[in-house]
Design a protein that fits this description.
Structural class: mainly beta
Oligomer: single chain
Number of strands: 39
Strand order of the largest sheet: 17-20-22-25-28-31-34-37
Largest sheet: 8 strands, parallel
Helix content: under 10%
C-alpha cells in the first residue's frame, strides 16, 4: 500500500474505530498533517513493515482508547514524531529518526531514537541512540551469524574505521523467544551489552571476541538478572568484562590486554567456573579479577601479574581447584 500526499491529503490513514491489521508493506509520505491517526480504534496491528517519511506533523498519532501494537519482527520506520495518548506497545523494531520528541507506552522490543530526538518509554527497554549498536531480534532462529536475526539486517562487526559496532542483547521472552547462540567463530565486535533478563550461549567451538581500539571498546557487559553460558571449548575474549546475573563457564574466558591499560574481569553475580579464566600482560599492566558477588572455581584461574594485577575478593569466593598468580616482572 503506497500513500503519497499532496496539498489535499491531510492524513494518510485515519483509523476511526474498528480493527486495522497490516501483514504487508505500507509506505506513507507527504501527508500534510499525520501519516497514521488512530482514534478509539479497537486495535491497530502491524505484523509487516510500515515506512513513514516527510509528513507534516506526526508519523503516528495514537488517540482515544486506541491500542496500537507493533508485533514481534514487525518494523516501523518514521522520520516524523510518534505521539501516544492511548496504548502503544512495541514488540518489534521501531526506528524514529527526527529531532523532535516522541513517546510510546510499553517497549518489549527494540526502539531506535536517532537524529537527536528522544523517544520516551513508559516501561520496558530503553531506546538505543546509535546505529552502531546492533540489537538482537531473533526473527529467524538463534544463530548469531545470521543477519536476519539483527536490526538493520546485518551481523555486527568490528571493521575500522566505519564499522566499529556493538551487539545489544535484549530479553526476547516476550517477543521471538530466540536467544542468541554463538556456535562458531563469528565476526569480532567492539562490545556486547546484555540487557536485563537476557540470555546468551557460547556453544562448543563458538568464539566471541570484543576488540579494543579506542575507549570504551573491547567490553563485555551483563546487566542484573542475565544469563551467560560458555560451553566446553567455547571462548569469550574481551578487554573489560563486567558480569552480573548467572554465569556458567565451561570453556575459556580470555582477558585481553593493551599497553596503556590492564584488562579486568569484574563479577557482581553468581559465577561458576568449570573451565579456564586466563589473563594476560602488556607493558607494566597485568590482569585484575575482582569479585563482589559469588565465585566458585572448579576449574583454572590463571592471572599473570606485571607491576599491577591480581585477584581481589570483596564478596564470597570458593576455590576447589587451581588459582595461578605469576609475576612476570621483577
Amino acid at each position: 500500500l503506497n500513500i503519497s500526499g499532496s496539498s489535499s491529503l491531510n492524513k494518510g490513514i485515519f483509523a476511526n474505530h474498528g480493527v486495522f491489521s497490516n501483514h504487508g508493506l505500507i509506505n506513507i509520505n507527504d501527508a500534510q498533517n499525520t501519516a497514521i491517526n488512530t482514534s478509539n480504534t479497537l486495535t491497530f496491528d502491524n505484523y509487516g513493515e510500515i515506512k513513514i517519511e516527510y509528513n507534516g506533523l506526526y508519523g503516528v498519532l495514537n488517540t482515544g482508547n486506541s491500542n496500537f501494537i507493533n508485533h514481534p519482527c514487525a518494523q516501523i520506520y518514521s522520520s516524523d514524531k510518534i505521539v501516544n495518548w492511548a496504548n502503544f506497545t512495541n514488540n518489534g523494531l521501531l526506528i524514529v529518526e527526527t529531532s523532535e520528541a516522541s513517546n510510546i507506552g510499553v517497549n518489549n522490543g527494540i526502539v531506535y531514537s536517532l537524529d537527536g530526538g528522544t523517544v520516551s518509554v513508559a516501561s520496558g527497554n530503553i531506546p538505543l541512540t546509535n546505529r552502531n549498536r546492533h540489537a538482537w531480534l531473533g526473527c529467524k532462529n538463534k544463530i548469531w551469524a545470521d543477519g536476519k536475526n539483527w536490526a538493520f539486517g546485518t551481523v555486527p562487526m568490528f571493521l575500522p574505521p566505519n564499522h566499529k559496532e556493538e551487539a545489544v542483547i535484549p530479553n526476547v521472552s516476550m517477543t521471538t523467544g530466540n536467544s542468541p547462540e554463538v556456535s562458531n567463530l563469528v565476526p569480532s565486535i567492539a562490545g556486547v551489552t546484555m540487557l536485563e533478563n537476557s540470555h546468551l550461549t557460547i556453544t562448543n567451538s563458538g568464539r566471541l571476541e570484543c576488540i579494543f581500539d579506542t575507549p570504551p571498546e573491547g567490553f563485555f557487559k551483563m546487566d542484573p538478572n542475565t544469563n551467560l553460558v560458555i560451553a566446553f571449548s567455547g571462548e569469550l575474549r574481551a578487554h573489560e568484562i563486567k558480569l552480573d546475573g548467572e554465569i556458567l563457564n565451561g570453556g575459556k574466558i580470555q582477558i585481553t590486554q593493551i599497553i596503556n591499560g590492564g584488562g579486568n574481569l569484574q563479577n557482581k553475580g553468581n559465577f561458576q567456573n568449570f573451565g579456564t579464566i586466563k589473563g594476560g600482560t602488556a607493558g607494566n599492566n597485568g590482569s585484575f579479577v575482582t569479585n563482589f558477588g559469588t565465585m566458585i572455581n572448579e576449574g583454572i584461574i590463571d592471572i599473570p601479574v606485571a607491576l599491577y594485577g591480581g585477584l581481589n575478593n570483596l564478596g564470597q569466593f570458593n576455590n576447589n581447584n587451581i588459582i595461578k598468580i605469576i609475576t612476570e616482572k621483577t
